């Protein structure tokens, strides 16, 4: 991970002002010993923060999307989910509280404390997940899914908020990618793990699909308890670094964007930040990339079974596309941080997703259609840290970062609602309208990237020409393109 620290030092692409910004954002070191101290400190932060948060998010993804696996494993028949739109309803209802509670969760994060807040959320949704294993009808399952959305709502935006406060701008996408790719890599094997759990069928008088929820719920609760001891707070509130290391981290952030000291969150500031249209544009971009991510998570096993594979093969074949997605995600993140650019890579990822959808829909050979799922999964997964990094790079102040990450992830929840409604039961197993809706989302995301890039280029030019005194309240801040 140490090699990824140099992204900001190598290159800062801020629309032609790279040299001056690199100088302002790179801490000066008197000797080799100081540089080694910095590398050691960043490595310590990486290893303390990223693996645990990634593991917790992997569990969150598994817990919210394992209904597709459980359905194929027998839950659909047991709870009669094929009747009407029951499966779409229990999939969709999760996202209603998940979307509405993002912003309140981020606003109370610093007040409650990261460790306390995240631990409460993880243990709570783990208990709900466990309870889903005892649902006797689809109404109870729907209620559990809604509660799952309540408790998971505050987790992901909190993680993005915390991670982006620790690093300089051109170090952040690789960290977000590591955080996310680890979770999708683990999530890719969740179907295999779920298949193993179904072999417990009959134990304790329970069906195999019930054991999926029960065991995964217990694992979530256990990880929540472990998280109490190791979850990292904001840099200025951390307890695991020395005083000198903390000062170094804060100095790096201050030199990069000038917001190492948290500003006070007030109602007036929140309203002001919510009036910035670029935050909503970034949120809509995240909606467009979350939509195929959720669609693949919920429906890939059904799509595979529609290609002729049996239940066991459909579950096992779910994993390889996620492994490919993890690799692609890191490659895109590496080059995005190295070049200091975000928008071109987001466009490339959207094109990859569209190509995958078209292959899955219109090629007759099942092998090629399966490869299309690789591309769809890879392009959508890579866009997640890409869009998050693009948004976080172009805001300053903790109050705006809290609002921005919450709005962005909340819009991702809307992407989940969209995915679970356009991938309709009557369109199974190929979901033609859903696939074309996914393609439409990618085209919309490309258009949004074009609008924000043009706006940021224009603002950067006006700042260099002296037509405006500051951008985002700082005289040495330039937007990332």
From TrEMBL:
Bilayer disposition of the protein: Multi-pass membrane protein
Primary site of residence: membrane
Entry keywords, A to Z: Membrane, Transmembrane, Transmembrane helix, Transport
- Where does the record place the region Disordered? 1-35
Cross-referenced InterPro entries: MFS, MFS_dom, MFS_trans_sf
**Where is the protein found, in the record's own terms?**
Membrane
Q: Kindly indicate where the leader peptide sits in this chain.
A: none
Q: Where is the Major facilitator superfamily (MFS) profile domain?
A: 52-462
The answer to keyword Transferase applying to this record is: no
Q: Where are the transmembrane segments?
A: 49-67, 87-105, 117-134, 140-164, 176-197, 209-231, 277-303, 315-333, 345-364, 370-390, 402-423, 435-457
Which PROSITE patterns does this one have? MFS
Q: What Gene3D superfamilies does the database record attribute to this sequence?
A: MFS general substrate transporter like domains
Record flagged with keyword Phosphoprotein? no
Pfam families noted in UniProt: MFS_1 (PF07690)
Protein name in the entry: Major facilitator superfamily (MFS) profile domain-containing protein
Source organism per entry reads Hohenbuehelia grisea
């Amino acid at each position: 991970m140490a090699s990824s620290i140099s992204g900001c030092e190598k290159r800062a692409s801020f629309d032609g002002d790279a040299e001056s910004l690199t100088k302002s954002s790179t801490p000066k070191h008197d000797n080799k010993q100081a540089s080694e101290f910095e590398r050691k400190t960043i490595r310590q932060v990486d290893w303390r923060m990223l693996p645990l948060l990634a593991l917790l998010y992997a569990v969150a993804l598994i817990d919210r999307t394992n209904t597709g696996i459980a359905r194929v494993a027998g839950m659909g028949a047991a709870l009669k989910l094929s009747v009407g739109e029951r499966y779409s309803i229990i999939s969709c209802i999760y996202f209603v509280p998940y979307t509405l509670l993002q912003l309140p969760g981020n606003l109370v994060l610093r007040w409650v404390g990261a460790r306390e807040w995240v631990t409460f959320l993880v243990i709570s949704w783990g208990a709900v997940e466990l309870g889903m294993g005892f649902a006797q009808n689809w109404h109870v399952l729907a209620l559990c899914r809604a509660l799952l959305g309540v408790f998971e709502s505050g987790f992901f935006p909190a993680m993005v908020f915390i991670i982006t406060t620790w690093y300089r701008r051109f170090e952040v996408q690789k960290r977000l990618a590591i955080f996310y790719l680890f979770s999708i890599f683990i999530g890719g094997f969740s179907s295999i793990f779920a298949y193993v759990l179904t072999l417990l069928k009959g134990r304790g008088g329970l069906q195999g699909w019930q054991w999926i929820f029960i065991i995964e719920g217990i694992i979530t609760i256990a990880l929540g308890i472990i998280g109490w001891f190791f979850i990292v707070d904001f840099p200025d509130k951390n307890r695991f670094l020395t005083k000198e290391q903390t000062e170094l981290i804060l100095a790096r952030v201050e030199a990069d964007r000038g917001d190492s000291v948290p500003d006070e969150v007030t109602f007036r500031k929140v309203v002001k930040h919510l009036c910035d249209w670029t935050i909503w544009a970034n949120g809509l971009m995240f909606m467009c990339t979350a939509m195929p991510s959720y669609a693949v998570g919920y429906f890939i096993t059904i799509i595979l079974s529609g290609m002729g594979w049996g239940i066991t093969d459909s579950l096992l074949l779910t994993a390889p596309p996620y492994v490919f997605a993890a690799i692609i995600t890191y490659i895109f993140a590496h080059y995005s941080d190295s070049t200091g650019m975000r928008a071109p890579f987001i466009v490339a990822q959207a094109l990859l997703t569209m190509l995958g959808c078209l292959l899955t829909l219109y090629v007759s050979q099942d092998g090629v259609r399966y490869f299309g799922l690789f591309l769809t999964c890879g392009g959508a997964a890579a866009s997640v840290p890409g869009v998050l990094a693009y948004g976080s790079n172009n805001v300053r102040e903790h109050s705006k970062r809290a609002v921005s990450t919450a709005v962005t992830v909340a819009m991702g929840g809307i992407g989940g609602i969209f995915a679970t409604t356009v991938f309709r039961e009557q369109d199974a197993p190929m979901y033609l309208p859903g696939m074309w809706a996914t393609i439409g989302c990618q085209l919309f995301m490309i258009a949004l990237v074009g609008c924000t890039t043009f706006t940021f280029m224009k603002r950067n030019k006006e700042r260099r020409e002296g037509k405006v005194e500051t951008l985002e309240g700082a005289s040495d801040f330039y937007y990332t393109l």
